[in-house]
Amino acid sequence: MDAQDGVWRAAWEGARSQLLRFGRTTGRGLADLILPPMAHDSREATAAAGLTPDAWSRIVFLEAPVCDGCGAAFEFDGGDFAEDRCAACATLPYAFDRARAACVYDDASRGLILRYKHGDQQQFAPLFARWIGRAAAELTADADAVIPVPLHPMRLLSRRFNQAAEIARPLARTCRLDYLPDSLIRISHTQTQGGKSRRGRRLNVKKAFAVTEAGRRRIKGRRILLIDDVLTTGATAEACARALLDAGARAVDLAVIARVRNARDLTM
């Protein structure tokens, strides 16, 4: 977002906030009628939960049936006798028990996620939290606490915020779950996962995470919902899940904004 866009949005939202305060006594709908919420992906006013209609139409949201283990979409609904896990998850399950993704990571969703993750556009966080809340409703219903995949302090310093934490916080609040951002920490400043093979990703994060002593007391015997932005091969989530399970968590589930279509088929 350039400076001009920032000034435009600030002015718009400032005027809208004043109308909302007035609207508390005269009807909240008045503010939306006069100055509807702006889309996160353009200057266009929208009523479509933060995105323009064109952006909504291009996002491939993942709907049931999906694999219970990795969140991949099944091509068809097999009915009452269908398997609940894909062949890969049945043969070689992840350390985390279940996974859900809100959408497919492709050209349509990638730009939004990268703008959020690397463009410091944190206005996407509540939107992505709502997406995950819908896709992972089964997981939030069973969870005891929510933990974001942590960043190493050096990376957090350069990026200025943890994209997983900014999604996990409102999700935990909405679902009335404990939010435990400091229970799991990243102890190794690893290389970026981008461009690495599945095996390379696993080795890169194999011993990168640890549970704090205070975290052990808070997660022991509890079902944890782990939050991340994108599921590629699952290596990062796998390493986090193993650390949590070794520290006494009863089970770990995973919820992400998006997943690549072929997460379990990438080159070893």
From TrEMBL:
Transmembrane segments: none annotated. InterPro entries: ComF/GntX_DNA_util-trans (IPR051910), PRTase_dom (IPR000836). Pfam families: Pribosyltran. Residues 214-261 form the Phosphoribosyltransferase domain. PANTHER family: DNA UTILIZATION PROTEIN YHGH. This is ComF family protein. It comes from Brevundimonas nasdae. The lineage of its organism: Bacteria, Pseudomonadati, Pseudomonadota, Alphaproteobacteria, Caulobacterales.
